[in-house]
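STRUCTURE:
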């Protein structure tokens, strides 16, 4: 439970900072800097805590490839946060918890009964409702807010990637799971940044670079807390509590960006929040 709360603090802070950074220097540079800084932080933590490398060849390959999945999820997330609205993007992405928990039930033998089952259903229903304004739904997918399709993509990919990371952490330890996933992540992100280098601003302000770096530090803090929590076999509980990270960017979007989602979308956000509370219980 405590690991899940620290995870939520790190991821929520990172999401809000990423929204600010993306609107200053773009999502491409934001994801590149944040992932690179995050890798440095993980390496330092790995060495400082005396972690042994506990992964064999197969586990190493799985975690590196999973890093590629995570890279795609981060790209979708930061693009969605750049386009906004943050108060909708984050709750939709936060519904990844339901996907991860469902995978844990099917493939890891964890139970999903009573409040957990209801919470999963509410979370998914809320994500669907929050994804678009019902008043314009008849106009088709092009009527969605620009950031919403990216958020849906991030939700689906994060659901799978987070499950794999949490599952592998129980076998190889948090250090190896985090280090290998982020290494694979950075490799694929570097390829993206090189390919899309034309979208990278030439002379970004130092404050913007520092903000993108902070995104990476906060994000990795959440990842380390998450893998520590799942290392003990509490994948469902840690995942459920961690998904409360949506509260930070939602409040930030409403207060700092003056976002005003439609009433139906606010109901969807509330359902996501309620579903996550039930999952936590």
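SEQUENCE:
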């Amino acid at each position: 439970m405590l690991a899940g709360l620290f995870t939520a603090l790190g991821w929520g802070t990172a999401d809000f900072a990423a929204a600010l950074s993306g609107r200053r220097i773009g999502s491409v540079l934001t994801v590149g800097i944040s992932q690179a800084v995050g890798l440095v932080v993980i390496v330092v933590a790995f060495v400082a805590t005396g972690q042994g490398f506990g992964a064999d060849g197969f586990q190493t390959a799985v975690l590196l490839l999973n890093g590629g999945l995570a890279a795609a999820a981060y790209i979708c997330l930061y693009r969605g946060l750049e386009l906004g609205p943050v108060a909708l993007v984050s709750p939709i992405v936060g519904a990844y918890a339901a996907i991860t928990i469902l995978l844990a039930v099917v493939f890891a033998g964890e139970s999903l009964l009573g409040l957990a089952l209801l919470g999963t259903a509410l979370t998914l229903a809320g994500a669907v409702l929050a994804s678009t304004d019902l008043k314009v739904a008849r106009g088709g997918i092009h009527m969605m807010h620009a950031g919403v399709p990216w958020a849906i993509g991030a939700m689906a990919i994060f659901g799978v990637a987070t499950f794999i990371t949490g599952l592998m952490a129980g076998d190889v330890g948090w250090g190896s799971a985090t280090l290998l996933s982020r290494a694979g992540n950075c490799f694929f992100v570097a390829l993206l940044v090189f390919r899309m280098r034309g979208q990278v601003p030439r002379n970004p302000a130092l404050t913007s670079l520092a903000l993108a770096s902070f995104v990476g530090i906060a994000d990795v803090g959440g990842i380390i807390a998450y893998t520590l929590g799942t290392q003990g076999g509490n994948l469902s509980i840690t995942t459920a509590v961690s998904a409360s990270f949506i509260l930070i960017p939602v409040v930030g979007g409403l207060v700092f960006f003056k976002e005003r989602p439609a009433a139906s979308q606010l109901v969807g956000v509330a359902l996501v929040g309620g579903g996550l509370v039930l999952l936590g219980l």
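REMARK: The mean pLDDT is 84.
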